[in-house]
Design a protein that fits this description.
By secondary structure, this protein is α+β, with helices and mostly antiparallel strands. The chain contains three helices and twelve strands. The relative contact order is 0.11.
Length: 292
């Protein structure tokens, strides 16, 4: 086997010559920029060789990544198929529940609640009395408005009309201290009376027993009791419940859902009052009578 550093005299001369040339090239590159440029061009010539030498490694890496991505896609595909089956099963159950609900309604002969007609109105003024929460609406007797008519905005019940002129009406807001509205807890159906506090952001629930099932966040809707407000319209949401030791009732505060101090456009619901109806509504009913 031939040794790397041979003891032959010529081999020693070759080694010394290579050493001297290497040192000379290093010195020349350090002192002369032309040598550095020549070295750059020589590196450019060697680049294809480097790419060729690196190609097998890059090909192996690409194949590994492709295989890993394929496995991940297959796993994700299996998971999505499983979720699709679960959703399809739930959809079938929901369809069955809907169909059963329809059959029960038919069995109980339950009719859908008819839509309530309305008159669109706009606020044109407010009462600046600090002890009264009232606003003026640009709809009056000529438009079909009547005393006691319920009024809502886009978010909930606002109040009822307490004064009607030919072209304008006065709306008493549910936050007025003299206003009370029958409500029920949407979650469990418990019924109470929501009393105005004199402030647009608060209502009080009257005579709530300590044992009542109430929670903060419960939705209050109209109960339909009293025949003044139709059933099922949102009124407020409970914000605080206070228990007083030794007292039989709780202090319950709710926040109105209607934008009492910001709403501009309202709907006046044409809902049948308890007692005689206005002349205009009587005329409309007479027109619908078969023998009329």
């Amino acid at each position: 086997m031939k040794q790397l550093f041979s003891t032959d005299v010529y081999s020693r001369y070759y080694f010394l010559l290579a050493l001297v040339l290497g040192i000379a090239m290093m010195f020349a590159e350090h002192r002369y920029s032309e040598v550095a440029n020549a070295r750059s061009w020589m590196t450019l010539l060697v680049t294809p060789v480097q790419w060729a030498a690196d190609a097998p490694g890059r090909a192996w890496g690409w194949a590994s990544d492709s295989l890993a991505n394929r496995n991940a896609l297959l796993e994700e595909n299996r998971e999505l198929k499983s979720q699709t089956l679960i959703l399809a099963e739930r959809s079938q159950v929901m369809s069955s529940v809907i169909a059963e609900n329809v059959r029960l309604r038919e069995l109980l002969n339950a009719a859908k609640r008819d839509d309530i007609a309305y008159i669109a109105g706009e606020l044109i003024g407010s009462n600046y009395d600090p002890y009264s929460q009232q606003v003026i609406i640009n709809r009056g007797r000529q438009d079909g408005a009547y005393i006691g008519q319920p009024v809502i905005d886009a978010s909930g019940v606002m109040g009822q009309l307490v004064s009607v002129s030919p072209y304008t009406s006065r709306l008493l807001l549910i936050s007025d201290i003299n206003h009370a509205i029958p409500v029920q807890i949407n979650r469990n159906g418990l019924r109470f009376i929501a009393q105005g506090s004199g402030r647009a952001e608060e209502l009080y629930l009257s005579h709530v027993p300590e044992t009542a099932d109430l929670k903060e966040g419960d939705l209050l809707t109209t109960s339909g009791m009293g025949g003044r407000f139709p059933f099922g319209y949102p009124v407020a949401r409970i914000t605080s419940i206070s228990h007083r030791p030794g007292e039989p009732f709780m202090d319950v505060v709710a926040r109105p859902l209607a934008q009492l101090d910001r709403s501009r456009y309202v709907l006046l619901l044409l809902y049948q009052l308890v007692g005689p109806a206005p002349d205009k509504l009587v005329d409309l009913k007479m027109e619908k009578t078969p023998n009329g």
